[in-house]
Design a protein that fits this description.
Blueprint: H1 2-9, E1 13-15, E2 19-20, E3 24-30, E4 37-45, E5 61-71, E6 78-83, E7 92-99, E8 104-105, E9 109-117, E10 122-125, H2 128-135, E11 137-140, E12 143-147, E13 153-155, E14 161-162, E15 165-169, E16 175-177, E17 194-197, E18 204-206, E19 212-218, E20 224-226, E21 232-239, E22 253-255, E23 261-268, E24 274-276, E25 282-283, E26 287-290, E27 297-299, E28 310-313, H3 319-326, E29 334-335, E30 350-351
Parallel strand pairs: 2-9, 9-11, 10-12, 11-14, 12-15, 13-16, 15-17, 16-18, 17-19, 18-20, 19-21, 20-22, 21-23, 23-25, 23-26, 24-27, 26-28, 28-29, 29-30
Antiparallel strand pairs: 1-3, 3-6, 4-5, 4-7, 7-8, 7-9
C-alpha cells in the first residue's frame, strides 16, 4: 500500500521529446527525492512486472529495459542523454523513472520513435499496422500510398518533409491534418507528388506550416485546402475529374494567401466559384482555367510574370475580372476563348 501511494504521488515524472532515429535526446525526470538514485526504464506502454524490490508496485511498461541511473540534484531533477538506434522500431515507447530506495515509480510518459522512409522504398498503407508506421514518419523520401482506410480523420503529427511521393487514394477521410509538414515534393503531378485522389468524403486539408510543394487534387469531395504559409508551389492541379456525376457541392477551394511563385496551375472541372491568390507574383509556367461554369471571381492582382500562357476558358467569368489579371501588359499571352469580350469591358492583350 505504501509503495502504491508513493507511485501515485509522483506527479511530475518523466519528460522527453519524440525519439528520432540516429539522434541523441535529453530525458528529464523531476520530482524525485533530492540526492536519490533514479533509474530510467523504457518499454511498451501497459501493465508490466511487479519486481519485489518495489514492494508490490508494478511498472507501467511491458518488456522493461533499463536505460541508466542518475542521481537527482537538490531540486529533485535528473537528466539522461539517450542515443536512439538507427534501427529502432517505429512504435510508441513508455518511459518511467524508478527510485528503489523509496519503492516509487513515476507515471508513464509515452513518446513516439520517429524515422524516415528511404528513397526507393515503398509503404502501402491499408491496415492499422501500416497506418501506425506512417504516423511515426518524420520524413518521406520513398513512396507512400494511403488507401481504403476507414478513418474519417487523418493526422500525421510528426511529418515535416516529403521529397518522395505521398498519396491518399479512395480513403474515407473527411479531414486530413499535416500540422508539421514544411516541405513537399516539387515534381509534376504526372510523375507523383502530393496526391489526393477520389477521397469522396473529403472536406478539409490543413497544412499550416507548409511552405513549398506541388499539390495534385483529382476527383475528391468538396474540399478546401488551407495552406496559409505556402509561398512556393510546383505543379498545382485542382480538378473534380474522376468524381462522376459532378455536382455543385463538389467544389474545390484553395486558400493560399502567401503564395508568391508557382510553376504551373491547372484548374478544370473543379467547380470553383472563386480563385483568389493575392500574393501570386510569378508564374514560371502556364496558368490554365478550364471548364468551370461556376467560376465568377478570378483575382491575381500581384501577378507580374507569366512567360507562357494564361488560358481562361470559363463562359461565365466576367471579362472585367480577367482584365484585372492582365492589367499593365505584364502577362505575355492570354487565350480568352469563351470569355465575353465586349467594348464596355475590354481585356487588355486578349486574343479572342
Amino acid at each position: 500500500m505504501i509503495a502504491w501511494l508513493l507511485a501515485a504521488s509522483w506527479a511530475a515524472g518523466v519528460t522527453a521529446p519524440p525519439l528520432e532515429r540516429s539522434t541523441t535526446v535529453t530525458v528529464t525526470v523531476t520530482g524525485a527525492p533530492a540526492g536519490s538514485a533514479v533509474d530510467l526504464v523504457g518499454g511498451t506502454p501497459g501493465t508490466g512486472p511487479c519486481p519485489p524490490v518495489l514492494g508490490g508496485a508494478c511498472l507501467p511498461v511491458r518488456s522493461p529495459r533499463w536505460l541508466g541511473r542518475q542521481v537527482a540534484d537538490a531540486a529533485g531533477v535528473a537528466t539522461w542523454s539517450v542515443r536512439v538506434p538507427a534501427a529502432a522500431p517505429l512504435v510508441d515507447v513508455g518511459l518511467v523513472a524508478v527510485v528503489q530506495a523509496s519503492a516509487s515509480v513515476s507515471p508513464v510518459t509515452v513518446v513516439p520513435v520517429l524515422g524516415t522512409l528511404p528513397a526507393g522504398q515503398t509503404l502501402d498503407v491499408a491496415t492499422p499496422a501500416t497506418w501506425r508506421q506512417l504516423q511515426h514518419l518524420v520524413r518521406i523520401d520513398g513512396d507512400v500510398t494511403v488507401h481504403d482506410l476507414p478513418l474519417t480523420t487523418v493526422a500525421l503529427p510528426y511529418l515535416t518533409r516529403v521529397d518522395g511521393h505521398l498519396a491518399f487514394v479512395d480513403t474515407a477521410a473527411q479531414a486530413i491534418a499535416l500540422p508539421a509538414l514544411r516541405t513537399g515534393p516539387r515534381t509534376r503531378c504526372e510523375t507523383g507528388a502530393l496526391d489526393l485522389v477520389r477521397n469522396l468524403a473529403l472536406h478539409t486539408v490543413d497544412a499550416p506550416a507548409l511552405e513549398a510543394t506541388s499539390l495534385c487534387s483529382w476527383g475528391n469531395g468538396p474540399v478546401t485546402y488551407t495552406l496559409p504559409a505556402l509561398r512556393t508551389a510546383g505543379h498545382v492541379v485542382l480538378s473534380s475529374v474522376g468524381r462522376l456525376p459532378s455536382a455543385p457541392t463538389d467544389a474545390v477551394a484553395l486558400v493560399a494567401p502567401a503564395l508568391e511563385t508557382i510553376d504551373a496551375l491547372d484548374v478544370y472541372y473543379a467547380r470553383l466559384t472563386a480563385l483568389d491568390l493575392p500574393g501570386l507574383a510569378t508564374a514560371n509556367g502556364p496558368i490554365q482555367l478550364w471548364h468551370d461554369d461556376l467560376l465568377t471571381d478570378l483575382a491575381l492582382p500581384a501577378l507580374g510574370s507569366a512567360p507562357l500562357l494564361v488560358t481562361v476558358d470559363d463562359p461565365v467569368l466576367s471579362s472585367c475580372v480577367v482584365d484585372a489579371v492582365v492589367a499593365g501588359g505584364a502577362v505575355g499571352a492570354v487565350d480568352c476563348r469563351q470569355v465575353d469580350v465586349d467594348a464596355a469591358c475590354p481585356v487588355a492583350g486578349c486574343t479572342p
